[in-house]
Amino acid sequence: MLRQVILLLAALDLTLTSRRLLRVPLYSRIKPNKSELFLPRNLTDGFNRRLRVALQSREHIEYFGNISIGTPEQHFTVIFDTGSSNTWLPSTNCPKSNAPCQRSRRYNSSRSKSHVPDGRNFTLFYGSGNVVGYLSRDTFRLAGVDVPNMVFGEVLFQQHKAFSAVSFDGLVGLSLGVLVWRNTTPFLKLLCAQGIVAECVFSVYLRRSPGKFPSGEILIGGFDKSRFEGQLHYVPIMQTNSWMLEISQTVVGTTIIADRMGAILDTGSSLVLMPQDVYSNFLGTLPVDLQYGNYTRNCKLPSLPVIHLHIGGKVFSLTSEDYLVELEIDHKKICILAVAPVKLDFWVLGDTFLWRYYTVYDATANRIGLAKTVRSAG
Questions:
Q1: Which value, in Å, is the radius of gyration of the alpha carbons in the chain?
Q2: Angle at Cα 95 formed by Cα 94 and Cα 101, nearest 5°?
Q3: Which of 36, 28, 339 is nearest to 160 (CA)?
Q4: What whole-number distance in Å separates Cα of residue 15 and Cα of residue 172?
Q5: pLDDT of 179 over the 90 cut
Q6: What is the value of pTM for the model shown?
Q7: What is the pLDDT at residue 61?
Q8: Does residue 37 carry a pLDDT above 60?
Q9: What is the DSSP annotation of 46-78?
Q10: Which among 13, 20, 32, 148 has most CB atoms closer than 10 A?
Q11: 241-256 pLDDT, tens per residue?
Q12: 282 close to 337: Cβ distance less than 8 angstroms
């Protein structure tokens, strides 16, 4: 009996050690890019061991990691985007006249033995422009973990000047929605279908720290208790096709500025985005000035009111330290709001919120977990 137990444990250990741990370090730059590149994206479109993706920030605007694709591997830097289900990379077939595409690393299908043509064309519309191309199929890899038969977009045109300023090549969608291209499986669901993880769960940890050190982490297959304080607070998602939760009420200081509304957690956005009427209410509670095209405040003045988001019976707060960003303009230090209006009827909680709160995305139970991030975590 003892021998059987030892053999069983050995088999279990072999199974666990065959799983892979994914870490990807990224880098940042100090100068901010004012474009919110993927502002409103196609939001209505529809392991037994854990995979980690270490992330680092660029100018606190996007967090990105590395993947590879094809046989042999071709390497790319991508945004892992919880606000979108679509995945795309620049193509070597993009014209020389399209400068953003030419500046990026480009996928060459003719060099990949595992490439399978699809032939369908696509266009993705973003708040800052659009990308145009056609579909292909190939094997994606995250730290040696293969995700075969992944349908993705080969981009021919990146149509907006903002694409010229970014540090990433493409985008990997981690949302639950239906793809713009039909009859295909999004990256997250395809990864989970491989049996690499026991549950279709991933978590996001972001740090507000520029430089050469990791500024965050995606953990696929579970969560890391050392990254947050206390217990996770779980709430159901409002829609089965997106990571949207419900904010039952929003209070700034002691003023109610909004009642029941949806909010999407979005690693592809740097700001907190409020519906326009809510944003107007928000500004009414703040002593700020309009300068340089942004609402600003002297950084030496007393703190602004705290934003209290009521989510699932618990309050999640953002202080002015969270929602103000310090910049130097004309040799003067000013603080600008990391909050902006958006022409939507729901919120978008981007990095400004995700710096403060550790988030868990459970596609098996259709729920989101939140807890305050431990800032001292390495």
A1: 21
A2: 55
A3: 36
A4: 28
A5: no
A6: 0.85
A7: 54
A8: no
A9: ---S-EEEEEEEETTTEEEEEEEETTTTEEEEE
A10: 20
A11: 899 999 999 999 999 9
A12: no
Q: What's the distance, Cα to Cα, between the start and end of the chain in Å?
A: 43
Cα–Cα dist 141/52, whole Å: 13
- Give the separation between CA 243 and CA 265, rounded to whole angstroms: 6
Paired residues of 58 in beta bridges: 62
What is the C-alpha to C-alpha distance for residues 274 and 350, in angstroms, rounded to an integer? 11
Number of Cβ within 10 Å of residue 40's Cβ equals 20
Percent of the chain with pLDDT over 90: 45
Within the chain, how many helices (H) and strands (E) appear? 6, 26
Amino acid identity for residue 118 in this structure? D
Active-site positions read 81, 266
Sign of CA dihedral 251, 264, 67, 270: negative
Place of tokens 């919880």: 82
Q: Residue 40 contacts by C-beta under 8 Å, 6 or more apart in sequence?
A: 126, 127, 342, 343, 344, 348
Identify which of 315, 237, 270, 300 has the alpha carbon closest to the alpha carbon of residue 81. Answer: 270
Contact 290, 374 (CB under 8 A): no
Residue 2 burial (CB count, 10 A)? 6
331: exposed, middle or buried (C-beta count within 10 Å: 0-12, 13-18, 19+)? exposed
> Could you read off the pLDDT of 130-167 as tens digits, one per residue?
889 999 999 999 867 899 999 999 999 887 655 666 67
